[in-house]
Amino acid sequence: MKDAMKGPMKQAFVLLLLLGGTFFLQRGDAQRVVAAGQILFVSGPGNTMVTTTGPQTSGNCVSIDANGNHIASGSACGTGSGGGGSDIPSFVICNAPGCGSEVSANYYFISNPTGITFDECGVNLAVAATLQTVIFDIQDASGVSIFGGSKLNVTVANGTTTQFQSTFLGSPQTAAKGSKLKAVVTQNDTNGAAQFAYIKCRVH
Q1: Is 159 left (phi over 0), alpha (psi -120 to 50) or beta?
Q2: I need a labelling partner for 107 at 20 to 30 A (CA). Which of 30, 93, 94, 158 fits?
Q3: d(CA 170, CA 57)
Q4: Do residues 162 and 123 lie in contact, with contact meaning Cβ atoms separated by under 8 Å?
Q5: What is the number of helices (H) and of strands (E) in the chain?
Q6: What pLDDT, in 10s, does the model give residues 10-24?
């Protein structure tokens, strides 16, 4: 039996399945027996049949496994690696009193064609603070914080453990293509040991 079935032939195939018959599906150059009850449903209106595993999620790209099954990939086409592009906003910033304005040297600009939505940001100190909490902010080009009231805080007790923040000013917090972001220290370690920090955000 060929893969492509049209009109009455397709109806007869479905009827055979409903009646509990045994039939053959062509797979490459070979045929394999499909017992009654193994095919639970037909997905889509087309005339060519393929097998699938897992849920068939609307809007997902399709990937093909080693056995030729079509599987929902878990994301829309063009949003993953190799698709429409990916942004991972990241900054290296000095947080010691001698760093002048204590603003990251360069803006991070968004390049994804459809912009980004922030999921979480984290900060890691190269050297632990010794005198007081170090507070970081991420702001747009006009100085508006993406976090609102709760910033990225690293206490003396946190040491060099990475700290995360997932509470943002907006819900969702987004940034369009071409938007510029900068990291800012709003409170340093006064004359303590903390000097440099690495900040990175997870987005989709």
Answers
A1: left
A2: 158
A3: 28
A4: yes
A5: 1, 13
A6: 554 444 444 454 444
103 vs 199: CA distance, rounded Å: 12
CA dihedral defined by 183, 187, 191, 194, rounded to 10 degrees? -50
Helix, strand or coil, per DSSP, at residue 110: coil
Taking the model in full, what pTM does it have? 0.60
Q: How many residues does the chain have?
A: 204
Hey, where are the domains in the chain?
A: 7-72, 90-203
**In the numeric block, which tokens belong to residue 97?**
């009193």
**Amino acid, res. 62:** V
Tokens representing 88?
């991972």
Token digits of residue 134 = 């170090």
Right CATH number for 90-203 from 2.40.160, 1.10.287, 2.60.120, 3.40.630? 2.60.120
Report residue 21 as tokens: 């018959």
Contact indicator for 151, 145 with CB cutoff of 8 Å:
yes
pLDDT confidence of residue 27: 46
